[in-house]
Write a structure and sequence with these properties.
The protein is mostly helical. Helices cover 77% and strands 0% of the residues.
Length: 449
């Protein structure tokens, strides 16, 4: 027991070290294995075996399972970006909404793009120029822009709204045998409860800064994008149609094939086909911009490697944690905590997502280790796997958005803002509501519904 306690303490030490080093801007690719070896050393494991065996196996398994989705998502996003399709759609929405509602004009395009399958990392780069122009016209401090982008891109369309092609909504299907549209009522209610407080807070901040007389300041590193002025007026359809195609191919096409031809796809296979469909439609609708297509494919392919490796290395860290004696103590404590199994799952996913700074990484670690127990305990009390799916997906997008999260670091770097300038608003709007709702809704749902 003493060695298990020491091992458990080392787990928390390793997690803390991972958070601190990532927060300071160090790459997860080397930080994660170093922290994993700290845990392994204090747990009495052979370091060489733990690194070359368990750590690398966990990292590689994640890459094998999810690289097609990362790769195709990055390519799809880059095509939408470099052809101006996403910007045309954003401009159309901005024209309809107007700078008077600056926050909404930024949030809605982000939500539409992420629900349409574009990676949130790509959305950051696509939306920032649009948001920059909106906030400049509305004379709002540029430091408020990151929180608006995060609310739209990092939020409900990633984890709560049923049918999303984002990986955070696909991973649970592999463990619970569900579909991306699992538990629609729970997801929609939670999405509203998460989004409304965050949005109202950002509108409150707009009124606050205007009352204080604060206005827009130029970003010295920002350069206006060129070459998008000669696009036809209908070009916004090139941004909308591929998004619709991805969502329909993910959620409708598999059902049609199963009923008419007896062909059954797994959700991860459906994501690949849906993204291929989105890429094909985007390329076809932008045929006159053929010169941009191959560079977009190349850049998307290159960008996908770094994105998946950062997450996969965090999963490799979790693979080592899973085999140390202290993790058994932690699992036992979590599985026996007060509350129903949905609440237990939500707490566990939230904690690991926060510790690793990755929604998909933290959720994968938990489900790899505990999905079987979750299913067993849920079945014993009549809770469906669909509810387990939605609770896990929602919980993954709570504490993951802490300062060391890769998407947060990318967003602040692109926006040329510091944590001190922008993270407080981002935390209040994009961390507190998802954490509260992601815990309270599963607790209530499991007890009364």
């Amino acid at each position: 027991m003493a060695s298990s306690v020491v091992s458990l303490i080392s787990v928390f030490v390793g997690l803390a070290l991972l958070i601190i080093l990532a927060y300071k801007g160090h790459s997860t690719i080397w930080v994660a294995p170093v922290c994993a070896m700290v845990v392994a050393a204090f747990s009495g494991l052979n370091l060489l075996t733990a690194y070359m065996g368990d750590y690398m196996r966990g990292t590689a398994d994640y890459v094998i399972s999810w690289f097609p989705a990362f790769f195709l998502g990055a390519v799809y996003g880059k095509i939408m970006d470099m052809t101006g399709s996403a910007r045309s759609l954003a401009n159309k929405l901005i024209g309809l909404i107007g700078s008077k509602y600056a926050v909404l004009a930024v949030v809605l395009p982000c939500m539409l793009m992420t629900y349409g399958g574009i990676s949130l990392f790509v959305v950051v780069f696509v939306i920032y120029p649009m948001g920059y122009a909106i906030y400049r016209e509305a004379n709002l401090p540029r430091t408020l822009l990151p929180s608006a982008i995060a609310l739209g891109a990092f939020g409900v369309t990633m984890m709560a709204i049923p049918g999303s092609p984002q990986i955070q909504n696909i991973i649970p299907t592999e463990y619970f045998g569900t579909t991306p549209a699992a538990a629609p009522l729970m997801g929609i209610i939670s999405a509203v409860l998460m989004f409304v407080p965050g949005y109202l807070y950002l509108e409150y901040r707009v009124r606050q800064v205007r009352k204080a007389g604060l206005g827009f300041t130029e970003d010295p590193k920002y350069k206006e994008l060129e070459g998008l002025d000669n696009l036809p007026k209908w070009h916004w359809l090139c941004g909308l149609v591929p998004l619709v195609v991805v969502v329909l191919m993910l959620n409708v096409l598999p059902k049609i094939l199963l009923r008419t031809a007896g062909v059954e796809w797994t959700p991860s296979q459906a994501v690949v086909v849906a993204l291929l469909g989105g890429i094909a439609v985007a390329c076809a609708m932008n045929a006159k911009q053929a010169k941009h297509l191959m560079p977009a494919i190349n850049q998307g392919a290159q960008g996908s490697v770094g994105a998946i490796m950062n997450t996969a290395c965090a999963v490799g860290f979790g693979a080592v944690i899973k085999i140390v004696p202290g993790f058994e103590l932690l699992k036992t404590a979590l599985l026996n905590m007060p509350g129903n199994i949905l609440f237990t799952e939500a707490v566990t996913v939230n904690v690991l997502a926060g510790a690793t700074g990755s929604a998909s990484g933290g959720m994968t670690i938990v489900l790899e280790a505990m999905a079987g127990q979750f299913l067993e305990k849920a079945a014993a009390v009549g809770i469906s796997p669909e509810l387990l799916h939605r609770a896990a997906a929602m919980a993954s997008g709570g504490l993951d958005t802490l300062p060391h999260n890769g998407a947060v670091l990318t967003l602040l770097a692109v926006s040329n803002c510091t944590h001190k300038e922008s993270y407080k608003d981002l935390f209040i709007a994009c961390v507190i509501p998802p954490v509260v709702v992601g815990l309270v809704v599963p607790l209530v749902w499991g007890l009364f519904i």
